[in-house]
Amino acid sequence: MKKIALVTFIILLIDQASKIYVKTHFELSKFPNDSVEVFSWFKLTFVENPGMAYGFEFGGLLGKYFLVIIRVFLIAGMVYLFKKWLQRGESNYLIIPMAIIFAGAIGNLIDGMFYGLIFDHGTVYDETAKHWMPYDGMAKLVPFGNGYSHFMKGCVVDMLHFPLVDWTVPESWPLIGGKQIEFFKYIFNVADSAITIGAALLLIFRKKAFPNGLEF
């Protein structure tokens, strides 16, 4: 259990430190976004998303509540599985990738559950417009419970942006002339990266992670 706790702690520390720094030092409403170019292929670009990983949204405010609840149940289920796997002496090829995924899931859950309680500004849902509304300026940390919103109404902070390809199609091209093509256009965070890396490691080492097949 110590290695699970260590992996989870390190990833959560990096994830939350990067989110808090970006949220308190970048302005959300700048157009197109508050962004700092680190390299030509890597930027820190501040966005907030109320839904799933990589900026996807799901069903407005009710969808947000649903996702938070699902994440809580998934994390609880993973704790149960960790206990079983450790008792069975499962290898690190299973335990470590799952711990990385576990940390990523907790990282985004923290944002959704608590960021509305600890920051003075954040993206909020407008019931009239049925749309998530951004804010002006930089956010500040405030005493717990004195934030801009309520429990489970916070938004996930994203900042990792890798525009490896950023190209405008020549106007002379039929149908798609003038279109902007960007890869990778999605902006994400350390928690999203952890989930993706953990899943990739399980896929790469699946024969060693699951020598007897998928058993729970």
From TrEMBL:
Organism the protein comes from: Chryseobacterium piscicola
Reaction(s) the record says it catalyses: Release of signal peptides from bacterial membrane prolipoproteins. Hydrolyzes -Xaa-Yaa-Zaa-|-(S,diacylglyceryl)Cys-, in which Xaa is hydrophobic (preferably Leu), and Yaa (Ala or Ser) and Zaa (Gly or Ala) have small, neutral side chains
Top-rank EC class of the record's enzyme: hydrolase
Record's keyword annotation contains Hydrolase: yes
UniProt keyword annotation of Cell membrane present: yes
InterPro entries cross-referenced by the UniProt entry: Peptidase_A8 (IPR001872)
Transmembrane segments: 62-82, 94-118, 183-205
Membrane topology: Multi-pass membrane protein
Protein name: Lipoprotein signal peptidase
Cited PANTHER family: LIPOPROTEIN SIGNAL PEPTIDASE (PTHR33695)
GO biological process: proteolysis
Keywords: Aspartyl protease, Cell membrane, Hydrolase, Lipoprotein, Membrane, Protease, Transmembrane, Transmembrane helix
Compartmental location: Cell membrane
